[in-house]
Design brief:
By secondary structure, the chain is an alpha/beta fold. It has helices spanning about 10, 25-30, 35-45, 50-55, 65-75, 110-115, 120-130, 145-150, 165-175, 195-200, 210-220, 220-230, 245-250, 260-270, 280-290, 310-320, 335-345, 355-385; strands at about 75, 90-95, 95-100, 105, 135, 155-160, 180-185, 275-280, 295, 325-330, 350-355, 400.
């Protein structure tokens, strides 16, 4: 028979390790987030449905976004064992300058809608962690205020070409004067995609106070208090707008732009030019021949043309077509640091991450954005170690098998 005894205090004492009490409710929430999916679930609880759906949703049946995520999920890694991976370097080079991680924060519109701290919080985190941040034309903090919030950050400005070319030229000049390093021209929005969640939610900029939104306010009081008691929404590119996102895009953006217009853009912008929204090998070659310094394989996070090509699937063929003279970045569907490692192994010079940090922003403001980057960087480092690689340059196509 098993003999039992009363445990002695000196035997129990090593087992009693009470967890330190975290006083901040925001920090308590974020401590529980181990993945970007965890941040998404917190964000969904804390944010009005229409705002969360604007961030989380995609176009029409959301097939493009779903396919992008499924492709990342279906990747099979091929690790090499018995390698010395005690020290791992996650840094890489983007546009000739060092980035501490192989990704940048993508441009996102209406960021102060997700959380009142908005773009200032995001650019401060980018500065702290040593990665680039791209401010959107449709951002809700001015070009100059973002620059002032993080003077040492690597800042890019994302441009949509407007019907009013003079207004677009003014934005470019303001970005240059404020010290922005690169211009990101988005080319996959000649007209607005059909984002049906926004239509069903009656989502407008800013939110319209209706019976539905007042009821929602009762369920998310902190978000509404922050919106109504902080500075009114301002935009990087216009003073105000009253209407839907689709109406704004169709009213302001120029659907007549062609590759020939890149010459006009080059005449007013003298720094690196990134062209975002490439979805075919032929277009990649055309844009590179027209003088782009980098291209982004992107279907706008699935928010424009549904059933568009999956950017990751295009990557090997695009790299073979354009060679090493032009940097190639990838976005859409990235929810894990392992996704970034896989894309880099398949030839991407870096990735752009959007929703992942917005979930963090909605979950906990600036601290939530920092938590998102901590999660991604930990996943990147661990995946590289388990693959047997010590540097980003050691990642090769042989490490990844696409389904």
């Amino acid at each position: 028979m098993t003999q039992r005894q009363i445990p002695k205090w000196n035997e129990l004492k090593p087992l009693l390790r009470p967890k330190p009490i975290t006083l901040s409710p925001t920090d308590r929430r974020l401590e529980k987030a181990l993945t970007i999916g965890d941040l998404r679930r917190i964000a969904k609880r804390r944010t009005p449905r229409s705002v969360f759906d604007y961030t989380d949703g995609a176009a029409e049946a959301e097939i493009s976004l779903r396919r992008a995520r499924q492709l990342f999920h279906g990747i099979e890694f091929e690790p090499s064992v018995l390698r010395n991976v005690a020290d791992v370097d996650t840094s890489t080079t983007m546009l000739g300058q060092s980035s501490a991680l192989p990704f940048a924060f993508a441009p996102t519109g209406f960021t102060r809608m997700m959380n009142h701290e908005g773009e200032r919080a995001v650019v401060r985190v980018a500065q702290r962690f040593g990665i680039p941040y791209a401010l959107s034309t449709m951002g809700t903090t001015s070009i100059e205020d973002v620059a002032a919030a993080a003077p040492e950050a690597r800042k890019w400005f994302q441009l949509y070409v407007w019907n009013d070319r003079a207004a677009g030229e003014d934005l470019v000049k303001r970005a240059e004067a404020a010290g922005y390093e690169a211009l990101v021209l988005t080319v996959d929005v000649p007209v607005a995609g059909a984002r049906l969640r926004d239509v069903r939610n009656g989502f407008t900029i800013p939110p319209t106070l209706t019976a539905k939104t007042v009821l929602d306010a009762a369920m998310h009081p902190a978000w509404w208090i922050n919106l109504l008691t902080t500075e009114p929404l301002t935009f990087a590119s216009l003073n105000a707008w009253e209407g839907t996102v689709a109406e704004l895009i169709n009213a302001l953006f120029d659907p007549t732009m062609t590759v020939a217009d890149l010459e006009w853009l080059r005449s007013i912008w003298h720094g690196p030019l990134i062209v975002k929204g490439i979805q075919t090998v032929a277009d990649a070659q055309r844009i590179v021949d027209a003088g782009a310094d980098a291209i982004v394989l992107s279907n706008h996070g699935g928010r424009q043309l549904d059933r568009a090509p999956v950017p990751l699937r295009l990557l090997p063929d695009v790299k073979a077509a354009v060679g090493d003279h032009t940097e190639v970045y990838v976005d859409t569907g990235i929810t894990n640091g392992a996704d970034i490692v896989a894309a880099t192994a398949l030839g991407a010079d870096a990735c752009l991450v959007g929703r992942a940090y917005l979930y963090g922003l909605m979950a906990g403001g600036e601290r939530g954005v920092a938590r998102a980057i901590e999660i991604l960087s930990t996943e990147i480092r661990r995946t590289m170690q388990l693959l047997g690689t010590r540097t980003v340059d050691e990642l090769q196509p042989a490490h990844v098998r696409l389904p």
